[in-house]
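User: My collaborator sent over this chain with a note saying "see what the structure looks like." That's all I know about it. Can you take a look?
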Amino acid sequence: MELFFRKHLRYKQHWNKKNISMSDAIWQPLEKDTYLDGCVYAKNSLFKVFETTNFGWIVFASGTKTSDGNIPNKRIIRY
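Assistant: Without extra context I'll predict from the sequence alone. Here is the result:
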């Protein structure tokens, strides 16, 4: 999960911006089915990666599905 977070945190953002807030974060599609925090999210699911002072967050858009086509048990993951 650490590699995923670091790879996607500054998506289309300037590298030296201090914090990427929820409003600054840009929606990104998953490139492939991805296992995160006990769930496999389907390819092309939209998500944002942002940070607060203490934590990093991965938030999936409503309508996100698992690789099986089900609704995931979590849409918000704290890192």
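A starting point for your reply to your collaborator: The mean pLDDT is 85.
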